[in-house]
Amino acid sequence: MSIPDTLRHKIDLFRTAARVFRYEEELFSRPSWVAVLLGQNIVPRQCDPIVASLPHAMVHESLESMRLAMAQASTAMPTHEEFIRRYCHAGAGSS
Fold it and tell me: Rounded to a whole number, what is the distance in angstroms from the first to the last CA of the chain?
């Protein structure tokens, strides 16, 4: 199957410099596009030149802020077992 030009453009941008382009009306968010592209073994050859031009401390601070936010979010979430028990519990007498 041939790849539409719009998707080819997205793949090329990501593969070349880790850039993700999306239109506002698209269903996928930027993190979703990254997950899909990496899941298809499409790996950037280099980091985004804009990011590379920023001071190292600024990039480190931003990444650390994201890491902490993800750690806090995951700590606040129930475990898989708790989620299943809470939301997928079969009622008494069900088969």
Answer: 44
Nearest to 15, CA basis, from 49, 50, 52, 41: 41
Residue 80: φ, ψ to 5°? -60, -45
From first to last of its 95 residues, the chain has per-residue pLDDT tens of: 899 998 999 999 999 999 998 888 888 888 899 999 999 999 999 988 899 999 999 999 999 999 999 999 999 999 999 999 988 876 655 55
d(CA 4, CA 36): 16
Token pair of 42 as six digits: 């499409």
**DSSP states of 25-47 as a string?**
T-SS-HHHHHHHHHHTT---SS-
Q: What is the largest CA-CA distance in the chain?
A: 63
Residues 6+ apart with CB under 8 A from 11: 3, 37, 42
